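lol ok so funny story. i was supposed to be doing the assay writeup but got distracted and ended up predicting the structure for this chain instead. priorities right. anyway since i did it might as well share w the group, maybe its usefull for someone
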Amino acid sequence: MKIIISYCLFFTALFTPSYADDSNKPTKPSDIPVEAFARLNDGGQMEMSPDAASIAYIVSHKGRKHILVQKLDGTKRVLLPPIKEADIKWFTWKGNDLLLISYRFTVNDMGRTYASTRLVTYNLESNKMDILIKPKRSGMYSRERIGNIGDSIIDLLPQDPDHILLELDDDYDGDTSIFKVNIRTRGRSEYFSSKFGVTNWSVDEQKNVRWGTGYHLNERRVMYLNPVTDKWEQVQDKDWYKKDSIAPVRFFDDPRFAYVYSPNEKGINGLAKFDMVEGKIVEEIFSHDKVDISGLVTSPETGKIIGVSYTEHSPNIHFLNKGFEHLYDRINGAIGSGWNHIVSMNIERKSFLILHMNYNAPAEYHYLNGKTGVIEFILSANSSLPQNLMAEVQPIKYQARDGLTIHGYLTLPKG
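and the output, tada:
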């Protein structure tokens, strides 16, 4: 089945500022309607195509998420709506002309109600949408059944323009296999067969299935493919896993080693290099003195690890890549107070999409032309909230009765 997307006629109305008439513009905080604070934000998941020729992002219309796709040269602009009762969950580019979109919907199956997800492709050139995975006929009168989770992408395979690795329960037995799926033809072949009761798989840097978690006979099952013996090992009963539930966040080029989150001597979670065969930390990469790390920061273009994020009074990045550290320094100097995050980029064309945030205003998106140094404003996540009327937020700390220092934020009403 192909879903034809027509051009939408309400772009202008959709993106006209909420207070286009200055006579209706709020002059004090009490003038702002409650609905302005409750509305869905615009600009979510903004992402640039790999060739930096198009952008796509989520916008709100009538209380539901849509995806706006547009060429940066202004030649094409399309709005992708929710499909009937299915809501847009997320999207990502795969190549320069195709979007992968996850839709979430509710299924009523023989008295049971549960959420289900499916992937849909949108081709910017042909303006057509297709459901990526459909049940195959497995007999004269029967059909293959697909499990309720149909959007679990294991790897986008950036070097392969036509395929992704997708995790699916294709026989409805609760175990998941990995399939190599052609996003153009929708054909698929089994890449890795389900085993051990595992429902969540991970691959290493060579795209070999290396780690899996799940349940077997109601017992936790954690599996690791040992690169030394080339055999699968059960990990859930090993001391290092039982103590700190250490699990690979990302593998090194040598899959014997993995990036893991691990507590330091103060009990604060940091990033470490872990020997999966010997079951021990071989290098402490970074930990903060006061707060846990939040996660890895990767290059939006290559996926390579460039730093570690953490939040003290505001979001911060400890950089492991000096080039990106210098790039962020330039961006932070060019865009006002607050903090910035590169959400999409093309190094060759020196094009960057930047998410800018601060305490007292909705998030903003900017486009940086690295060749000219010019930064252009794209949109506000919520143009209904004038920044000059927003209350100031300030970080505070106070001591509890037991002497523990507690950090928080204080917002005082304006005026």
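The chain has a mean pLDDT of 86. The longest strand covers residues 98-109.
back to the writeup now i swear
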